[in-house]
Amino acid sequence: MPDASDAIISIHPGYADAILDGTKTIELRRRIPELATGTRLWIYATRPTAAVVGVATISDVNRAHPRTIWQKHRDGAGVDYASFMEYFNGAQEAVAILLAAVKRVGPITIEELREIRDRFHPPQVLLRLTNAEAKALQRLAKK
């Protein structure tokens, strides 16, 4: 059972790069488990990168109708309006995860992640970490 406030989130490589270079400050999701402010979020860039490439701290999580989220967060969304609306088509709720203290790490490969958690598989959305897993990931990030 996870006992730390660390989690790994899967993000397409282009969006992960935009977060790491500061042009995207908000991660958008149709749904995601509850996340507390202050949670350390490890950014796993999906294939072809297939590695943890960054870490950020959640400064806030907003849930609202997609139009409201667009009006409030479009400057940090990292997507144009048409792409935003296509992603949220039919959704009654959008989630905006506001990111702070973003830092590039690694890359920490899937093989290294499997040393932390046996049979690690990249999360579809989010994977919570135990305290021991979070500490091991922090050590790998400092190499």
Strands, helices and their partners?
Blueprint: E1 6-11, H1 13-20, E2 26-29, E3 40-45, E4 51-64, H2 66-77, H3 81-87, E5 94-109, H4 110-116, E6 126-128, H5 131-141
Parallel strand pairs: 1-3
Antiparallel strand pairs: 1-6, 2-5, 3-4, 4-5
Overview of this structure, please?
The protein is of the alpha+beta class and 143 residues long. The chain has one domain: Hypothetical protein (Archaeosine Trna-guanine Transglycosylase, Chain: A, domain 4, Roll). Helices cover 31% and strands 34% of the residues. The protein has five helices and six strands, in the order βαβββααβαβα. It has helices at residues 13-20, 66-77, 81-87, 110-116, 131-141; strands spanning 6-11, 26-29, 40-45, 51-64, 94-109, 126-128. The protein has a six-stranded mixed sheet. β3 (40-45) and β4 form a beta hairpin. It is elongated, with a radius of gyration of 15 Å. 31% of the residues are buried.
For the structure shown, list the relevant keywords.
alpha+beta; 143 residues; 6-stranded mixed β-sheet; single chain; Archaeosine Trna-guanine Transglycosylase, Chain: A, domain 4
Précis, in short:
The protein contains five helices and six strands.
* Contiguous helical run count: 5
Topology, number of strands: 6
Multimerization status: single chain
Mean pLDDT over the full residue set: 92
Could you give the order of the helices and strands? EHEEEHHEHEH
